[in-house]
Amino acid sequence: MKFDLRPRSLRRAKITALGTYVPPRLLTNADLEKMVHTNDQWIVERTGIRERHLVDPGVATSDLAVAAARICLAERGIEPSEVEAIIVATVTPDMLFPATACLVQDKLGAKGAWGFDMSAACCAFVYALQVGAKLIESGAHKKVLVIGADVMSSIIDYKDRSTCIIFGDGAGAVLLEPAEEGEVGMIDFLHEIDGSGAASLYMPGGGSLHPPTAETVAKNMHVVHQEGQAVYKFAVRKMSEATEALLARNGIHGSDLDCFIPHQANKRIIVSTAERLGIAPERVIINIDRFGNTTAGTIPLAMQTAREENKLHKGDLVLLASVGAGYTVGTCLLRWEI
Ligand code: UT7
């Protein structure tokens, strides 16, 4: 066999299919009122959330990821065996290792794929999208599955009212393929991390620093801890700064965008960013009321909402943006080509 050593031509990547999945069981604000000292009015006013979907015991992140991936591949009309790489963005892998991408590959029957997990909390889907796009643009692959999936209920303390009202479980998958002649697809990404914010949103136990022991369990170290105000202030500032910088370096104004699909952490963060960028409210996708914060799942779930609400069409100029634990900041500009 002879190797082809000719330089490969760079080709843009585009999203060619989308699939999403949320487990059927609902946890409403009324349910939470019976579990912690909270009320529907506070939750709706401070976050915009009305209900979230939670898995039943025994259902893991790979299950949600596979369900979303199957819908995505069916939409494109291809077999799992045609997928060449799988990136699973998640902060709640089924287990520390093997990577959830391996479990997804096996359950899907994606015999020809390699893959790995991307750990970047709420920004992991956007980061995985860039890595997947580069695999396409480099010419290395023609079909890359990027999945954002989280079972946040597995790491939430349902006695802590400051976190248990926020999070939900869910997943979304997109297929990346080379753009056709004349199509644009993925345009630009701008990301940032700031580890000085690590202590504002984290899960202290279970890693190499604090391996699980009876003591770490007793000290409640295997659940999400959040300094809500600190994260909120960072998110409001950074979501605007990063998206403004991304738009500016591409010569685009907020008013040029057809659709803004942000991470769904708090409705107030989304509205404030959209106002600052000058994006009309009808072009801003908000579904936090139905799903809460599903971490890596929010952006593909919001893409699906945009389609259901007839707000996303072929050729639309779309902005994605997320801010989360790390701190991490992720943004993406693309043309929707489905
Ligand atoms: O996706 C990952 C990134 N995460 C985020 O972007 C989250 C960013 N942060 C937030 O969205 C908000 O900070 C929260 C929704 C988490 C909290 O909202 P807040 O407006 O910042 O509330 P707060 O923490 O300042 O608390 C205000 C008051 C406090 O009472 P006092 O001290 O004023 O008497 C809290 O104890 O609200 C109280 N409170 C609640 N009351 C009813 C906190 N949680 C609740 C609750 N129900 N669930």
Question: Describe it for me?
Answer:
With 338 residues, this protein is an alpha/beta fold. It folds into two domains: 13-178, Peroxisomal Thiolase, Chain A, domain 1; 186-335, Thiolase/Chalcone synthase (Peroxisomal Thiolase, Chain A, domain 1), CATH 3.40.47.10. 32% of the residues lie in helices and 22% in strands. α4 links the parallel β4 (85-89) and β5. α3 (61-76) packs across α4 and α8 (228-249) runs parallel beside α9 (267-277). The model has no long low-confidence stretch (mean pLDDT 97).
Layout of strands and helices, then pairs:
Layout: E1 13-21, E2 26-28, H1 29-33, H2 40-47, E3 51-53, H3 61-76, E4 85-89, H4 100-108, E5 114-118, H5 124-137, E6 144-151, H6 161-164, E7 169-178, E8 186-193, E9 201-202, H7 214-218, E10 225-226, H8 228-249, E11 259-262, H9 267-277, H10 288-291, H11 298-308, E12 317-324, E13 328-335
Parallel strand pairs: 4-5, 4-6, 11-12
Antiparallel strand pairs: 1-7, 2-3, 6-7, 8-13, 9-10, 12-13
Helix pairs in contact: 3-4, 8-9
The protein binds oxa(dethia)-CoA.
Précis, in short:
Helix content is about 30%, strand content about 20%. It has about 350 residues and is of the alpha/beta class.
CATH secondary-structure class of the largest domain? Alpha Beta
Count of distinct structural domains: 2
Round the Cα radius of gyration to an integer and report it: 19 Å
Order of strands, widest sheet: 1-7-6-4-5
What is the CATH topology assignment of the largest domain? Peroxisomal Thiolase, Chain A, domain 1
User: Averaging pLDDT over every residue, what do you get?
Assistant: 97
| Shape designation | globular
Write out the distinct hetero groups bound to the structure. oxa(dethia)-CoA
Helix content: 25-40%
Q: How many DSSP H or I helices?
A: 11
- Poorly predicted sequence stretches spanning 5 or more consecutive residues: none
CATH homologous superfamily grouping of the largest domain: Thiolase/Chalcone synthase
Provide the succession of SSEs: EEHHEHEHEHEHEEEHEHEHHHEE
**Share in β-strands:** 15-25%
Separation of termini? Answer: 37 Å
Give a count of the beta strands, DSSP E runs of length 2 or more: 13
The name of the CATH architecture of the largest domain is 3-Layer(aba) Sandwich
Structural class: alpha/beta
